[in-house]
Amino acid sequence: MLEQLVAHESPSGDRELLERCAGHLERLFAPLGSVRDLDGDGAREPHLLVEVAPEVATADAAQAAAGSPLILCHYDTVWPRGTTRGRPFLVDRDGIAHGPGVLDMKAGIVAVWLALRGLRELGIPLPRGARVSLTPDEEIGNPGTRSRVQELAAEAAVVLVVEPPLPGGRIKTARGGHATVRIDVRGRAAHSGVDPAAGISAAVEAATLTLRAQELADPVTGTTVSVGRLSAGHAVNVIPAEGRLEIDVRAREPLELQRVLTALHALTPTHPDAGIEVTVVSRRPPMGRGPGVDRLIARLHEHFASIGLELQEGFTGGVSEGNLAAAAGATVIDGLGPMGGGAHQLDEHVDVTSLLDRAAILGGLLADPAGF
Q: Which whole-number Å values give the CA distances from 230 to 169, 183, 203, in the listed order?
């Protein structure tokens, strides 16, 4: 199943491949519950919602769904079309599966399927049912699904995110916040040999802004500011009229994230006739360790122990849809996906054995009437 999912390439923004992968997922989950495309008008790539009805009958289906746990998955990856031709799925002799998107997060999707299928085959009821969200745009900040993910999270009894865990299998109970900021620079073009004084170099402005932006980082609070991409000009013998910076901002606290964004908006060019425009492309607030987490952790300890594992938790500076769910007021446990490493890297891999471990934990929690 994991091999088939990896073979269904699904790079963010590639509508054709995302729709093919969504079709495969719909066929996969259809025997386990009702599956519908929340973007059924065809305006965007499919956002699938799988709904497994609770065992207790109710006259108000909406009320029953509102009390269900929500499992957040995404099926888009960072890998462009054709990557699997050079790096096809394979499992080595140590039981480690390799391939683009295998860990982030197609293994997580398989673990969810295994949990739901196992519960059904064993005849174990889900007292509050379950919802599974499968989004096509998480890797690019959920531009088309953000509000809907938050709406689903606000209705949920608890939100479980099957992103990869921290090293050693530690779950994620807190995440830093993140923002991507673009600064467009406007200068004035001129011939660099004939009349350089007539130009205003967007390259110089962009380089200066890069240094000023990165000064906003604060190692004491863990706030990082990184200019990941910098560009200007089109020809070496022309004073460049246009430039662009793309900045990655990470912070553990909401006020720190806002401090950096406010300071970036306040930046000014060094040349009086140059111009800049600051745009926040995407933003996810920090995911704090919410008040409802302790009770859920206590139940998870039991489910981990039941299969001989020790539950540990931790913080990560990376972001996920868990950040969006926490901002909607939900109790969130993240990092419940299978173990592995190399997410977004050439050596991306997952421990096949952990697929079953994580499926067992998810299944146990979903069937636990006291779990949430």
A: 36, 10, 9
Fold (topology level) of 177-284: Alpha-Beta Plaits (3.30.70)
Phi first, then psi: give them for residue 317, nearest 5 degrees: -80, -10
Domain ranges of the chain: 2-176+287-366, 177-284
Task: Note the pLDDT tens digit of each residue in 200-229.
Answer: 999 999 999 999 999 999 999 999 999 999
Give the pair of three-digit tokens for residue 255.
């006020």
Q: Which CATH number fits domain 2-176+287-366: 3.40.190.150, 3.40.630.10, 3.40.50.300, 3.40.50.800?
A: 3.40.630.10
Q: Which two three-digit tokens encode residue 36? A: 């519908």
Whole-model pTM over 0.85? yes
Strand order in the sheet with 96-98: 90-91, 96-98, 349-351, 340-341
Q: Which helix (H) or strand (E) holds 250?
A: strand 242-251
Question: Residue 286 and residue 41: Cα distance in Å, rounded?
Answer: 32
Contact 287, 334 (CB under 8 A): yes
Q: Is cis: bond before 105, omega within 30 of 0? A: yes
Question: pLDDT, tens digit, for every residue of 291-342?
Answer: 889 989 999 999 999 999 999 999 999 999 999 999 999 999 999 999 999 9
Instruction: In whole angstroms, give the CA distance from residue 361 to residue 357.
Output: 6
